[in-house]
Amino acid sequence: MKKLKNIEGIIWDLDDTLYSVTEGLHESMRNSAAQTVIDLGHPITFEDALRLAEESQEVHRLTFKMLIDKFDIEHKDLHLPFHAGMDHNVITPCPDLPTIFEQNPHIKHTLMTHASREWGMRMLDHLGIADFFDPKAVFGLEDMDFEKKETSDRAAKTCLSAIGVNAENAAFAEDRDWNLTIPHQMGLTTILIDHPSQPTELLPHVDYRFKNAGDFLNAISSGQALKTA
Question: Is residue 179 within 8 Å of residue 149, measured between CB atoms?
């Protein structure tokens, strides 16, 4: 098994990895989705747009899908204004997270989120851990020309280059196991952060599983990482 003590760099996901998405954030997402569609000039009231966003989130687990289908909207047109309209203050930061990051000063950190880079920067600051990330090593989906982590190695390669760490000395931390398939093939240590959507068994492309980001970093500090299901 790969050793966590060899980790020199970590590629982090954001939502449900560095913090837990709450109903308050889901509500903010629905409100922002509705307003964004109106701001783009589509003929719909805020109330009707909000209703579609709520239904889309419930049925498809995607806030925008039904609005995109209704008006034939390009995802790229929604991406930046949608995330700009979301409220980061609905998330309560973990007060211990900055201290836990400090315990591993040798590790370089990079962020790759399917949200926007602006949202990523804003959330890192809100969580109190922005100082551990070089701004040049924070990436949103738009920086990858909308190539997603589950289908492209572009994100992993870009992040590794940004922090100057080889794949064999890097970890990739995610809350969705399918985003870990390509990093595993590239030789990174793959870390699954617990999420209700994920299977209970540890899949072959997942090296370690942890309850949250803090537990993962504490395992590196203590050298007591276990392969847990």
Answer: yes
Q: Give the model's pLDDT for residue 224.
A: 55
Nearest CA to 213 out of 157, 160, 170, 175 is that of 175
Selection from 130, 45, 118, 51 nearest residue 81 by Cα: 118
52 and 138 co-located in one domain: no
Pair (73, 110) in one structural domain: no
Q: Between residues 116 and 200, which one has the greater pLDDT? A: 116
pTM (two decimals): 0.91
Domain end call among 89, 112, 135: 89
CATH number at residue 209: 3.40.50.1000
Cα-based angle 93, 64, 154 (whole degrees, multiple of 5): 70
Nearest to 30 by CA among 3, 7, 48: 48
Return the percentage of the chain with pLDDT > 70, whole number.
96
CA 32/CA 51 separation, integer angstroms? 12
Residue 203's SS3 state is coil
Q: Clarify whether residues 195 and 113 are in a common domain.
A: yes
The Cα–Cα gap between 175 and 79 comes to 21
Amino acid at 120: G
